[in-house]
Amino acid sequence: MGVIGPSPDMEAVMEWQTDHTPTPNPSPQGGGGDATVPAVAIPSAAGATPMMEQFIEIKAANPDSILFYRMGDFYEMFFADAEIASRALGITLTKRGKHAGEDIPMCGVPVHAADDYLQKLIGLGYRVAVCEQVEDPAEAKKRGSKSVVRRDVVRLVTPGTITEEKLLDANEASYLMALGRVKGEEARMALAWIDISTGAFRVAETMPDRLLADILRVDPRELILADPVFHDPQLRPVLDVIGRRANPQPPILFDSATAETRISRYFGVATLDGFGKFSRPELSAIAGAIAYVEKTQKAERAPLSRPEREEAGAALFIDAATRSNLELLRTLSGSREGSLVKAVDRTVTGGGARLLAERIMSPLTDPDAVNERLDSVSFFRAEPRVCEAVRTALKGAPDMPRALSRLALNRGGPRDMGALAAGLKAAREIAGLFADRPLPAEIATAVEAMRALPTALGEHLDRALADELPLLKRDGGFVRGGYDGELDEMRALRDQSRRVIAGMERDLIEETGIRSLKIRHNNVLGYYIEVTANHHETMTGTDAAKARFIHRQTMASAMRFTTTELAGLETKIANAADRALSVELTVFDRLLEEIVAEADAIRAGAGALAVLDVSSSFAYLAEREDYCRPLVDGSLAFRIEGGRHPVVEQALRRQAADPFVANDADLSPQGNDRHGAIWLLTGPNMGGKSTFLRQNALIAILAQAGSFVPAKAAHIGVVDRLFSRVGASDDLARGRSTFMVEMVETSAILNQAGERALVILDEIGRGTATYDGLSIAWAAVEYLHEKNRCRAVFATHFHELTVLAGKLPRLHNVTMRVKEWEGDVVFLHEVGKGAADRSYGLQVARLAGLPDAVIERAKAVLTELEAGETSGKASRLADDLPLFSAAVRREPGPKPAKQDDAARPLVEAVAALHPDEMTPREALEALYRLKGLTPQ
User: Which residue ranges run through the membrane (predicted)?
Assistant: First the structure.
């Protein structure tokens, strides 16, 4: 974008009557609303002007995109496109002429600022068809005065296919994802995802029950799928969550029968045997992604890597609700601030930041692969000087993959080439830092990839490119002086024509001996040699002189001549600027060919830099935040000593609040039991239960992503599935109450968690009536223990559940400790063994500012409720668990007597005692007195 093309055709100039400078809309009609172009009727071309007829024809071929129609230095939009764009961009809606008796709505944006407007439209989810002039206006004139310059769509800009630096976040990947499904195999599907800005290309199979989780793991900007699949009712719940990112396409793009041919043609190979084995759904997804890239990029070929297959189960499964609850990439409000990635990101390059986010979103399940990553972090932690040197060098490494993609798609410029040159140089320097050192496997592989980078290309770019580079190649001036002799000559003529002419003048004076000889210029003769009339013989006296000096004009006192050299020099000077730019563009194209030929090596080297950035940043994080290396293995252990919440801990520090209180967690198998434990966590609101729940899940994610963790020590047997149900939310758009959402998410956990899963549950059953909720929570705990047999932390306010610890051998009661002080409660945020007997809700309500009258009334109601006949019911229910036919039953004891008036003297006597002021003898005497007051 942003390239000024040929001059507009004459008809467009004549019809262009309005002011096209975008200005704020004085009465905006909203912010763009739904970001899909409405299915409006395309106007009829009958009776339209030639230019408008052309617009309607091109718009009809791109009905789902806003058409940026190039007219001179502006992109114009008409009809419904103009109305949509004016609202979305906040620019003035004008009109031009009439069509079918009505005004034609119009708005426009300048070409040089098009990226800014594209950024806003793409951010709102719109797709844009960029229509350029593809013909020289002079050619159009030859066809007749009414002929219009030919235009065509040169590119479709969609959320998943952008490459412009302005439109991308350097720290986030920009994935286009394709969903492949083959008729007759609906239970098997596949996802292929491409980051066209870097060339990354991956594919994996999926299943209907995990489709949404797999999509959200990648977090694509755009999801394409065949139109029949898009309208499949069974996929509607998934697509409702994906929303406007889902983009239906013609089924032919996903045809598995022709997929191999399409893929082979794109990568220029005769067969896919060298790519590995792909299933039919995978081939369908890969072909769909490639077809869409070809459709949107038109004549340009994106430099994609060969599709890399991800094995099933290689990444930790995290369902959609868990990702949202744990706020891995963004908080529930959509902000990156406050997310896990933001808290642990210490990378210094865009590529490193993207890789870190990918690792956080897709932790590994292979202990050996996890420990390879941890070995890299340990190396940098043990070598602080190397770590600091690598991080310093990385700061000067530009984003090579994105620069490479822009260049290959003919959207790049000299600065992108400069970025590659700087990146290659930085890679060479960084590789040299590891010389003569034993290296862990991951770092050794990265260093090898950096050493394999094309050194000759880097040196060539250094020689060819100037120190200061323009943004656009059309501006020229990007080739270093001395690199190309012809270019230097053209520049000299262009920039120093007076000096060149003066030099020729000196040479002629020496040759002829005429000291008064001058080289002059006028608009009639151009450059000419002038001598006084008395030097006529010198200039024409011999045949050689006549042949050399060509007479042009005789004046009263002077004669004017030219030479072949002067005429040639004049032509060169006149064309020097154009020729200089032409030579530079030729150099650019030659360098581009060399760059594209080394695309695979450049991407591999850039990937290696990203790996070093992530590993060194994790080491830097561990040093600054006091993280430890976790022990990750294939066991079912889950033991955290002094664990901390990585996000909350940093937030408390920024707020200069009290330091974070670390807590232990141990869900490892106990004794001879081979399954993990379940902790039943009770305690007051605001006591820190939710923080404790989340921190253990985040520690597991960090460990399996290959990071050190916020703890004194950690032993984590690989978790294959992570489930978190924390907090309350509704889904009113789909007719789901808060409690319904809670039950749906709980159902997913109970139906999918296995023995290697880690389950984090908070407040199950609190969204309904007390006994309904208690019964659901009770049954869920039993099911987790007996059927799922997973490692879990179950937080609850149903204190009746604590009796289960005596009946379920792997269930343990723990509580958030508090202290009461002068009628108030102090939250210690410490987890300890035992069970809470109450939730301190009234104290929390007072802290929240409820009126005193409400608090006092609540106390009275609570006293009445607690005096009810409910004691013993939970114990009796636990003794009658259906899952334990051999449960030991307690012997019935005497029923507690009701307090009556006879006991009142005893109560008053106890209340009157002051133990701290009594001597041992006084205490003994008081005890005898109390014994005498005991009711018989």
Answer: none
